[in-house]
Amino acid sequence: MLNKVVIFGVGLIGGSFARALKHAGAVNTVVGMGRSPASMARALELGIIDVVGGDMAEALNGADLVLLAAPVAQTGAILAAIAPHLRPGTIVTDAGSTKSDVVAAARAALKDKVAQFVPGHPIAGRETNGPDAAIIDLYQGKKVVLTPLAENSAADIETVAGAWRACGAILHTLSPQEHDKVFAAVSHLPHLLAFALVDDIANKPHAALLFQYAASGFRDFTRIAGSSPEMWRDISLANQPALLAELDAYMAQLTTLRAHLAASDGAAIEAVYANAQHARQQWSEAIETAETPAPK
Amino acid sequence: MLNKVVIFGVGLIGGSFARALKHAGAVNTVVGMGRSPASMARALELGIIDVVGGDMAEALNGADLVLLAAPVAQTGAILAAIAPHLRPGTIVTDAGSTKSDVVAAARAALKDKVAQFVPGHPIAGRETNGPDAAIIDLYQGKKVVLTPLAENSAADIETVAGAWRACGAILHTLSPQEHDKVFAAVSHLPHLLAFALVDDIANKPHAALLFQYAASGFRDFTRIAGSSPEMWRDISLANQPALLAELDAYMAQLTTLRAHLAASDGAAIEAVYANAQHARQQWSEAIETAETPAPK
User: Is residue B30 within 8 Å of residue B21, measured between CB atoms?
Assistant: First the structure.
C-alpha cells in the first residue's frame, strides 16, 4: 500500500494511473500537480485526485511515489523543481515515450539523487486526453516497460513495478537504449510516416478530391496522424538518432520496392507483400491472444 | 427490375452485390460463375445465387447485367471469354480497384462491343473473402465510382448506376485516369507503405523483440498489410504509373522531413504534423458524417 502518490499531469496517463491505483486499494492519498487550474479542479471533482498540490515542498513531503505524466518537454523542468525537495524514501518515475533523453535529464536535474529515479513507459494510449479521458482499466493487460538505472535499488524498482501491477499492467524491462530503438521502429516511425502521408495529400492541389475518396484503409493507416503534433514533435526530437536510423532503413526499403515496381517485377513485389502479410498475421495472433483478458 | 444478373466471382464483392440486389427486390435470377466448384456450391447453398452457371453462352443468354468480381488479374480472360456471346441489351460492368488497365483490357477483348462495358469500382472492402463473407449491407452508404467510356449510352450507365443504388451505394463519376490517380494516393500507396514497413521490421535480426512491443498504433497503421499479397501485387502493377508518381512524391516528402529531423528543426516538424492532424480531423468529420447512415 502506498500512502501518498504525487502525479504531475492528471490527464489520460496520470489520471488513469490514479484511478487504477485507487480502484485496487493500492494508495491512500493522490496529490495532483499541474499547470492548468481547470484540469486540476476537474480531476478533483471526478475523484481522480484527493488534493490539488501547490507548494512543491509540501506536495513531496512524505510522498512514496511521484509519477511524471505531464508532456515530456516539461520533464527536465519538473525534475529540476523536484530535486531540492526530494527526500530519501521518495521514488520518482515517469511515463515518457522515450527513455535515453529522460535518463539524461534526470541525471542532470537530480544529480546525486538520481538513484531515486526509476524510468518507465506504459504502452497504452489513445487520442483522447484530459482528466475526463482517465479510466480505471487503461493499463489492464497492457505492457509497462521499466528501463532501470544502474544506481536504482532492487526495492525501489519493485515499488514502481508493484504500482503498475496494481493497475493491471504486465511489467517488462529494457535498457533505455534498447527501449528507444524498439519504439523508434514500432511506434515513432509509423507516426512520422502517417503524419507525412496526410500532409503530402493535404498539400496537393486536388486534395479535396483525394480526401473525398479516402476510405477505411486510409482511416486506419492514418489514425495515428490524429495524435498531438506537439507531443510527437517532442518524441521525434527526443529520439532523434534512433528515429533517423529507422527512417533511413525504411527509405532504403521503399527505394528497393520502387525499383521492383518500375521494373514490373511482380514476383519481387509479391514477396515483400506476402512476407509482410505473414509476419503481421503471426504478430496479430500472438499479441491479440496475449492482450485479451481471459473471460471471467 | 433486372431479370437476370450474371456475377463472375461470388465472394465478398460479388456475393454482397447479389445479396443486396435480392434484398432490394431488384433482380429475378442471379447466375454465379467461378472457377471454384466449392465456392459456387456454397453461394448456392447460402441463397446468394440461384443458378451455378457453366456454359458461357447459356449463362449470358438473356442477361441484363454482368458483374466481374473475380480477381482483377482474370479480367482480360473473362472479357475475352464473354465477348463472342455478348448480345445487344446485355451490359457488363466490373468492380476492379484500377480502371485504366481494365478499360484497355475491355477495348482489346470486346472490340466493337466495348460500348456495352461500363467500368466501375465500389469503395468497400474488408479483409474477409469467400461467399460466407458476403453481406446485404456492404455497400450501404458507400461510394461506387463509375468511369464511363465515351462509347457508353446514358441508358446503359444508368442501368449500372441503378443496380448499385439499389444496393444502397452513392454513385460518383470520374474518368479512368482521374480514378487511378486518386486511388494511387489514398489507397494503393498506403497499402504499399504498410506492407513495406512490416516487411522491413520482419527482416531485422531483432524482429521478435520489435513485434513484442508493437501496440495499437502499429496495429491500425499496418491493418492493410493483412490484405491479400496477390491482389495488391496486381493492383500495384495495374496502376504502376500513378503509383510510382505518388511514391516519388511521398519519398520526396520523407526526404524533407528527414532533413528537418536531422537539423532538430522542431518548428518545421511540428508544422508538418499539425497540418496533417488538422487535415485528417477535417476529413474524419466530413467523411464519418457522410457515411454514417441516418438513424431510423
Answer: yes
